[in-house]
Design a protein that fits this description.
175 residues; mainly beta; SH3 type barrels; 2 domains; 6-stranded antiparallel barrel; 6-stranded mixed β-sheet
């Protein structure tokens, strides 16, 4: 399994008990759907390694307390401390309407209400305080904020996202 076919679930942030249990800070709006997992991929070095779960449950809102089959001591827990957890993309709940996962809109065309076709989504930058579509329009890169105010419609069937960008934003790049 490789990271391209998985999504980031969260990161192991601390030990919970001397029996090897760990706490994972989840990167999700719905932590409760991950309460009864049987396994997860742990990023160790450059590999995703499957770890099987004896028990996992929510712990204080967005923390998940996990008791792995393979981790039963503090020193074993220390070895995976800080590791990222991943699940296959197939585990993501299907979204509909104007909600989408960033990975699923790569390659979609962006249609602006004033400018028409403003390019193809090449990637999503979510490392800034505001997530941005990185759009290619004939070799020029446009950065379009991903907000409910800007996105007017998501058409999955035609791989198109309709937007209403703030006045002057597109002209900044293409003008």
């Amino acid at each position: 399994m490789d990271k391209a076919s998985c999504f980031y679930l969260g990161k192991i942030v601390s030990k919970y008990s001397f029996k090897g249990e760990v706490l994972v800070k989840l990167d999700t709006d719905e932590p409760e759907i991950y309460e009864n997992m049987e396994s997860v991929f742990v990023s160790l070095g450059n590999n995703l390694v499957p770890f099987f779960i004896d028990r996992c449950r929510l712990h204080k809102s967005n923390l998940l307390r996990i008791d792995f089959e393979e981790v039963k001591t503090e020193s074993e827990a220390d070895r995976i401390m800080g590791s990222e957890l991943y699940l296959p993309l197939s585990f993501l709940p299907k979204l509909s309407g104007d909600k989408f996962y960033f990975h699923e809109v790569i390659g979609f065309t962006l249609i602006d209400s004033a400018h028409g076709d403003i390019g193809i989504i090449k990637s999503v930058n979510d490392h800034t305080s505001q997530a941005l579509f990185e759009v290619d329009k004939e070799g020029k890169e446009l950065l379009i904020p991903i907000t409910d105010e800007i996105i007017t419609k998501v058409d999955r069937e035609n791989k198109t996202i309709f937007v209403h960008t703030p006045e002057g934003l597109v002209d900044l790049y293409l003008g």
